[in-house]
Design brief:
Layout: H1 4-8, E1 24-30, E2 44-49, H2 55-63, E3 81-86, E4 90-94, H3 105-120, E5 125-133, H4 140-152, E6 156-161, H5 168-182, E7 189-191, H6 200-211, H7 216-223
Parallel strand pairs: 2-4, 2-5, 5-6, 6-7
Antiparallel strand pairs: 1-3, 3-4
Length: 224
């Protein structure tokens, strides 16, 4: 994962950018269930997805940093919950990728409780950005993650990565099929390409809106 020097330099701003990154600081990683994590003082938004879903590339494009999240040739390299303070106003959380077949079953078994520990124990969490590869049907791991988020009641943004890999003629049918599988409307899924930048501003706007919401956890506890 990127170190503090790699994340501190600002990227080029563009007019009308809904998420201008002026500062970015790596706070550290949570390596075990119930282990160290930075104080929960700022709103948090977390990113989740399978190990080969393109999460590192998406984060690099979203944050406008080429080395923010190192794009590894080996999916599953990120094995901790990594925390980044953005503009001194919120924390971006990079969850470990799940479901990579070449990682041992024992290691994969460690990631689930680590992710669950973060989700259950983060009072400032505003929501999850759940990534799915648009070319493939949701896996059992994807469905378990979505079901778990639904069980907790965590606000979730569904982002379909690698949209540039589909031909224009394939898009409508594929998006309709995925929407049916997920029980969503087409407009509830953000199409994203780390290559072309499609969907970057839409995701940034949705994130900003999510971060402005009160903590879902606090609201749930107050109503129970």
């Amino acid at each position: 994962m990127s170190d503090a020097d790699e994340t501190s330099a600002p990227g080029a701003e563009k007019p009308g950018d809904p998420l201008v990154i002026r500062s970015l600081d790596f706070l550290g990683g949570m390596a075990s269930q119930g282990g160290w994590r930075p104080p929960a003082e700022l709103p948090e938004v977390a990113f989740a997805g399978r190990s080969n879903v393109g999460k590192s590339s998406l984060l690099n494009r979203l944050i406008n940093r080429k080395k923010f999240a190192r794009v590894s040739n080996t999916p599953g390299r990120t094995r901790e919950v990594n925390f980044f303070k953005v503009n001194g106003t919120f924390v971006l959380v990079d969850l470990p990728g799940y479901g990579y077949a070449r990682i041992s079953k024992e290691k994969r078994a460690e990631w689930k409780p680590l992710i669950e520990s973060y989700l259950r124990g983060s009072p400032q969490l505003r929501g999850i950005v759940q990534l799915l590869d648009v070319r493939h049907d949701p896996t059992n791991d994807d469905q378990q993650m979505l079901d778990f988020l639904g069980e907790l009641g965590v606000p979730t943004l569904v982002v379909l990565t690698k949209i540039d890999k589909l031909r224009p003629s394939e898009r409508k049918q594929r998006l309709t099929a995925l929407a049916a599988m997920l029980g969503l409307d087409d407009d509830q899924m953000i199409r994203f390409s780390a290559v072309t930048g499609e969907g970057r501003d839409e995701l940034a706007e949705a994130m900003v809106a999510l971060l402005a919401q009160p903590s879902w956890k606090a609201e749930k506890e107050s109503s129970s």
